[in-house]
Amino acid sequence: MLSIKESAIDFLITNKNKIINEWNEQTLYSPENPLYDKTSLHFGQFIEFLIQTLMHKGAHTEKMIKQLAHTVAAERLQAETPIVDFINHVSSGRSILIHHLLLQNMSTVENQSIIKLMNSCMDQFLYDSISYYSELKSEMVNGQCNTLSQTHKERLTLLGKMTSSFVHEFRNPLTSIMGFVQLLQAETPDIKYLDIISTELQQLNSRITQFLDISKKETKETEKNIFDIGHLTQEVIEFLYPSILEVNANITTNLADNILISGSKEEFRQVLLNIILNALDVLSNENSNPLIDISTTVEISKQLTMNISNNGQKIHEDMIRDIFKPFITTKEHGTGLGLFVCKEIIEKNQGSLTCSSNDVLTTFTIRIPCV
């Protein structure tokens, strides 16, 4: 019986040409485009490096991927093509890889394990590409745009770093989508999860837009809704059911009835998704009794307090002081953007987001006015 890595290698070798051809059709480059030939070549090279990485991961294959990433970044900058196009093309390649993988006769565990292996290599490729692109872009901007305001320079720098972190925002929706695809395979094709998959894809697009908006001098005002925070919390928990099941976490809720919030429902959904997914990630590290507790209370002054607690490893005090700053993370391959974005959303709606941690529980507390 083939090991998981051997299954991944066999899958990539067997489907390489089919994946490249399908990806070429989706990129829609015209022959006049300066990247027409190079892009397809580089995608094929990446798959070859991915195979080599799975066969014998080490400094040599990581160096080859990094060199390819730097080549791609330099060519993108020279051709003056938007970096978001590169992100979208890599995202398409990731989706095609996952799609073809799901067509194989593999178990759920094998599928998820192989996807994690592929994501790790693709994440590093994206990070190296966009980081190097940002370095080159910053050098060019510093040389040509000395008249830019200091504030806008800082936002350009922040944009460069944030675009390199989009991988983190890709991964969580893709993980959720994978869970529901597995359910679709096990049940009838007309089950309700198709709507959930569509909703998550919209979330992914929305997150990319939000990151790009940060680079602009004027922020875009999102449409406000009045919604029940308890109902939204239950929706998020149901949506994350596959991830919760994978960690075998016990989620308890004590949500007050009819607590209405004024703000962007989708932004608040992003906040809840991010905090709960972070908790699940922490609880996946050898916790014998993983627990998440979510509770809400409302004061007479119409102030909502929501506590989201988990019994994962304690966060040190020095980390808590900086945990909401951009690019601060406790994860080995984290980006440190999730909690930063969450805090921005909450504070934009006249609220606050704080964190406390002891040997028993780590708690994220949202305080915000309710209607």
From TrEMBL:
<dbReference type="InterPro" id="IPR003661">
    <property type="entry name" value="HisK_dim/P_dom"/>
</dbReference>
<dbReference type="InterPro" id="IPR004358">
    <property type="entry name" value="Sig_transdc_His_kin-like_C"/>
</dbReference>
<keyword id="KW-0547">Nucleotide-binding</keyword>
<dbReference type="GO" id="GO:0005524">
    <property type="term" value="F:ATP binding"/>
</dbReference>
<dbReference type="Pfam" id="PF00512">
    <property type="entry name" value="HisKA"/>
</dbReference>
<keyword id="KW-0418">Kinase</keyword>
<keyword id="KW-0808">Transferase</keyword>
<feature type="domain" description="Histidine kinase">
    <location>
        <begin position="165"/>
        <end position="371"/>
    </location>
</feature>
<dbReference type="GO" id="GO:0000155">
    <property type="term" value="F:phosphorelay sensor kinase activity"/>
</dbReference>
<dbReference type="InterPro" id="IPR036097">
    <property type="entry name" value="HisK_dim/P_sf"/>
</dbReference>
<dbReference type="InterPro" id="IPR005467">
    <property type="entry name" value="His_kinase_dom"/>
</dbReference>
<dbReference type="InterPro" id="IPR003594">
    <property type="entry name" value="HATPase_dom"/>
</dbReference>
<keyword id="KW-0067">ATP-binding</keyword>
<keyword id="KW-0597">Phosphoprotein</keyword>
<keyword id="KW-0902">Two-component regulatory system</keyword>
<dbReference type="InterPro" id="IPR018984">
    <property type="entry name" value="Histidine_kinase_N"/>
</dbReference>
<protein>
    <recommendedName>
        <fullName>histidine kinase</fullName>
        <ecNumber>2.7.13.3</ecNumber>
    </recommendedName>
</protein>
<dbReference type="InterPro" id="IPR036890">
    <property type="entry name" value="HATPase_C_sf"/>
</dbReference>
<dbReference type="Pfam" id="PF09385">
    <property type="entry name" value="HisK_N"/>
</dbReference>
<dbReference type="Pfam" id="PF02518">
    <property type="entry name" value="HATPase_c"/>
</dbReference>
